[in-house]
Amino acid sequence: MTDITSTRGKEMLGYLPSYYETSRVMKSILQVEGTEFDKLRQALDETLNQFFVRTATWGLNTWEEELGLPITPDQSESERRDKIISRLRGYGTATISVVKQVTESYDKGAIDVVEDHAAYTITIQFVDTTGVPPNLDDLKAAVRAVVPAHLEIKYEFNYFIWDELDKKLWTWDQLDALNLTWSELEVYD
């Protein structure tokens, strides 16, 4: 072995006198120790990532448990993170701002929240999202956890409508070439 490939091994060699740079024995020792230090650093970085929801992976179970959420390893990490962030944002008084933050943590798009005091309803409008968000059930549960029980919650979604289709001036052949199902056409952008 003549070269040190380990990041920490190279760093350790820099702390030693220059005559060790030609020693195969020292390079071999530094490579082995450096590799172990590289693994240790990677494990420390990975552990640190678990303390932040946006970077957590195997620590998501702990976050869910601490926040009283059901542990759902069958969901994607992104959906689980959305639930956790929503719960963290949802603590406190239920204001329109809080409802909006909770909803936006799931949808990643613009949301309007309209409150109708007389009818005791809150309407959540998905402004720039077409179709139904993939994790709507989780979103509904998170919003319900924040909104007082006496208020009804309504959801309004955007779909691709015929007027928008007419504006595109497509022929039937062009539309057919897209090879879309009806459900896919409803959310086509």
UniProtKB/TrEMBL annotation:
Source organism, top-level taxon: Bacteria
Matches recorded under Pfam families: Phage_Mu_Gp48
Taxonomic source organism: Biomaibacter acetigenes
Entries under InterPro entries matching the protein: Phage_Mu_Gp48
Name of the featured protein: DUF2313 domain-containing protein
